[in-house]
Amino acid sequence: MSICLVYFMVFLVFSMLSFFMSLNFMSMDYSTVVEIEMVSVNSSSIVMSLLFDWMSLLFASFVLFISSMVIFYSLEYMEGDLMINRFIMLVAMFVASMLLLIFSPNLISILLGWDGLGLVSYCLVIYYQNVKSFNAGMLTALTNRLGDVAFLMSIAWMLNFGSWNYLFFLDVMSRSTEMDIIVFLMVFAGMTKSAQIPFSSWLPAAMAAPTPVSSLVHSSTLVTAGVYLLIRFNFCMGEGVKIILLFVASLTMFMAGLGASYEYDLKKIIALSTLSQLGLMMSILAMGGYVLAFYHLLTHALFKALLFMCAGAMIHGLSNCQDIRFMGGLINQMPLTCVFFVICNMSLCGLPFLSGFYSKDLILEFISMSNLGVYIYLIYFVSTGLTVAYTFRLIYMVLSGDYNHFSFHSINDLGLVMLKGMSGIIFFVVFMGSALSWMMLSTPYFICLPFYMKMMTLIVTVTGGWVGYELAQLALGYKSKTLKFNLSSIFMGSMWNMPYISTFGVNYYPLHQGVAMYESLDQGWSEYAGSQNLYYSLSSLSKFLQVFHSNNLKIFLSLTVMWIVFLILMIY
């Protein structure tokens, strides 16, 4: 209990300090690199570098603030857990790794933070110690290791520059072959950490972690690490890398929206929503709008953290049930939590004057102004419609209708500690979008669009809401389902069969093949032609020789008689 409050206070104080420092740095257009000498031997020294500018300080303040609220929320959510101190320490290590990654201009120290995130996330995903958690943890760790390999290769390529401080070479060496290779490897690493296609299946699997961890992971740490790293490297991205990233990220955004529209697990729907928003950030970054990507990263962090907290409160009250088909009518039992839940969902959809609106609407209008063709325009607006669709489906199935769970329940809004943790964020969910737009966008974007393109966002939002309502009606059985719907729901709900490729494909088939090989070789031909056959041959030979040794006198006399008979026959 005491360790939770200590971390809560420390993170909150440092969050406020970091925020006001970022405002100061932003107003002065100031940045500084602090070098701390760790070891010095003769003329060689090992130096720890830290980069302080408005971007790193602002992101760090958001990470620390959300972490402080999540730790406070965990006081009640993890109540009764005998290992709560270990849990809080793991969360603190997670935040420390993220901060190391944010403040480092050096690839070696970034790798420490990057690997720290991967390692601690594994420990947190397997926290509940069951088969599902172990499988999810292994999938998370191994997928992230692919990005670590790319990171190590980029560190090796940086040796060509004589230093690992990438900050010094972003402008000078931006068009060199070495920097092109490094940026390509960084994009690959960012795609694995931010779960872009084809590395997407670990993100929903990581929902096996406790809900406070999910809140932290999906808002401001781990999955956003890849986006933040690519924002830092955006000045060096060549056109080829940008086009690949744009295509992959836009497909990820579309795929996640479709998957969430067919999913029934509350936490997985919100996880797929995160995946969709990550695709949005990555694709707008690939189009050159790195400030917009960072802006959406910050606003998304706030409402996504609170969305997971609300989901955790619902799961907590429903005896750990996560299936939205067993919910319904929760607005009557837990009104305040449901109000928070609806505000966050509306912010996700881009309802005017909530924080999500300012970044999302600006991004969509930026897309409308670009000349990248009809594919990008359509996939962005269809994905936005899908976001509204799965959000309305979720709200309809969770909040309205009849209560579908046990009649002996303990669902209420009396969890004051959890409510206080959630109330700390709700103010920022409503107001922070406009505040950030005033702070970050010193020069306003000049958007000049025809009326029908200006109204397109509103049209897809309304259409998405209607589609979400129809999907909820289908899911609850108010409308008859067809075979076509069932088949499409299997394909869409499984993220375009991606888990079968990245999880079952690399898991099930090799294991199945291993069993077949074991039966046919280890216990089959290799037994017959190898050790078993050798044993049989040697034992038969030894038995034969044993007969000789046991009856050697008889055999000698018998052979003597046979020899004499043979001689007699030869003489005559």
TrEMBL record:
Q: Name one Pfam family in it.
A: NADH5_C
The protein's Enzyme Commission number: 7.1.1.2
Q: Where are the transmembrane segments?
A: 5-26, 46-75, 87-104, 110-128, 149-169, 181-199, 211-231, 243-262, 269-295, 301-318, 330-354, 374-396, 417-439, 451-469, 490-509, 553-571
Chief location: mitochondrion
| Residue ranges constituting the NADH dehydrogenase subunit 5 C-terminal domain according to the UniProt record | 390-571
Per the database record, which ranges form the NADH:quinone oxidoreductase/Mrp antiporter transmembrane domain? Answer: 104-386
Question: According to the UniProt record, what class of enzyme is this?
Answer: translocase
**Keywords, ordered alphabetically:** Electron transport, Membrane, Mitochondrion, Mitochondrion inner membrane, NAD, Respiratory chain, Translocase, Transmembrane, Transmembrane helix, Transport, Ubiquinone
Member of which family? Belongs to the complex I subunit 5 family.
Q: What does this protein do?
A: Core subunit of the mitochondrial membrane respiratory chain NADH dehydrogenase (Complex I) that is believed to belong to the minimal assembly required for catalysis. Complex I functions in the transfer of electrons from NADH to the respiratory chain. The immediate electron acceptor for the enzyme is believed to be ubiquinone.
Q: What is this protein called?
A: NADH-ubiquinone oxidoreductase chain 5
Organism, scientific name: Dorcus koreanus
